[in-house]
Amino acid sequence: MIINGEEVKRKLLQGINLVANTVQPTLGPQAKTVILQNNPPIVINDGVTITKYISHEDPYVQMGVQLVQNLASKAQEGSGDGTTTACILARMLCAKISQLPEMNAHKFYETLDYLKVKMLEGLDELSIKIEDDDILNVATIAANNDPNLGALIQAGIQEVGREGALTVEESKTHITELIVREGMQIPEGYISHLMANQPNGKAIFENPLVFMSNMKFRNFKDIIGLLEYAANQSRPLVIFCKGMDGSALNNLLANIINKTVECAVVLAPNFGDQQLDELGDIQCLMGGKVFTEESKDSASQFVKSDLGECERVIISKERTILVGGEGETYSRINYLKEQVKSMEGFEAARLKSRIIRLRGKVATIKVGASSSIEMLEKKERLDDALNATKAALEEGIVVGGGRALMEVAQRIDAPNWFKDAMTAPYEALFENSNLSPVPPEEYPMGFNALTGKMANLEEEGVFDPVKVAKNSLLAAMSIAQLFYSTEVAVLVGEQ
After folding, report:
1. pTM of the model
2. Quick check: helix, strand or coil at residue 32?
3. What pLDDT digit, counting tens, does each position of 89-121 carry?
4. Which is the CATH superfamily of the domain at 2-128+397-490?
5. Do residues 404 and 123 make contact, with C-beta atoms less than 8 angstroms apart?
6. Does domain 146-388 sit in CATH 3.50.7.10?
């Protein structure tokens, strides 16, 4: 079955509107929650989670829903926050585009590319480097203006540093608290998304075994003994190695999919001798042995003492966090300190970086709640706040309340339909506050949704992470381009 022309646009826009209208109430300090059918029901205000549950019986409308669902995932991957803003922007951009007269497609794409570049440049120009005193404000705003959660995030960052590992996990009590333990963050993640065991795309293992090697595995027989041992011990397995492919990777993934074993493979950081050094650092924290090509070690001939151990491992696409290893790092740190004395330049800097990593701490906010429903809502809110704060530390902040997007759109040579679309988050904040939008006054005046009044947002500490604003904009503009270019919709197979 095929539809085309204006009918395609109408159906897609209906699906886009359905998603945006569902998540909009979750935007800003006056945010409401959405209840999702589950057992028990899920009460939540996390945009990316909500979008996953939305569907429509009309398959053509559902295509529009799926476009935004994909947008939400991309926005989440980019900065960990900003999904709702992206959906609201996409809805307005597509609505405005649907009203435009016919134009040359190539010219339209050029216009979008120009607007994209200029908007990103404008946001960078407005960006303010976040100071330590600003972290509390940013974290509190991101946590739906919960000062207690904001304070926990600030305290965690103070403990581990701006680049350190700060995670969120569920507590077995009703108390929410910050726990700091020894640990290490490694700038490498799993080699396949099939290794993830969490809805957010992470692999989280409790009390795992850790195998470390600078070898590349291609033959399944080389690792089958490791997998069998881990399965018999009912413990997850983390493999650090140079790489894995062929029958080794294919059979491992098959075992993971069939839930025979919990396992993740992480590329050993760095290359050559430096890779061995990095693996040695991990070994000091985890215990165990590093299997090397140089020693002609065989992974199939391991013994129990060759495997490292730790309390917890958190693995994403980009990084791995090791918490509470069974090893000892003090002697390694002292050894590296002595080496630094005779080094200079790049080599000295590299050694100092390794020392910092070995001294590392992992801060965990353990979320307590009185029920599983409250737990899920609170944990998702804290995750979003933490991601937003980390994004702010990376690229700085811009004035919040939807003001930054409007300000940049007014500064650049943008068409009126685009300027109007950039007001969408600003207007949504008024709607969520049950107020009629006030035409924006001269910058930096804006709407403080917490107080319900127009104010100088910079003075009142209302900011958004610039990285979140950028990713929301890029995701929305991607949908706008797809929406404009789609002329025909085809149903394939049985629906």
Report:
1. 0.71
2. coil
3. 999 999 999 998 877 788 889 999 999 999 999
4. GroEL-like equatorial domain (1.10.560.10)
5. yes
6. yes
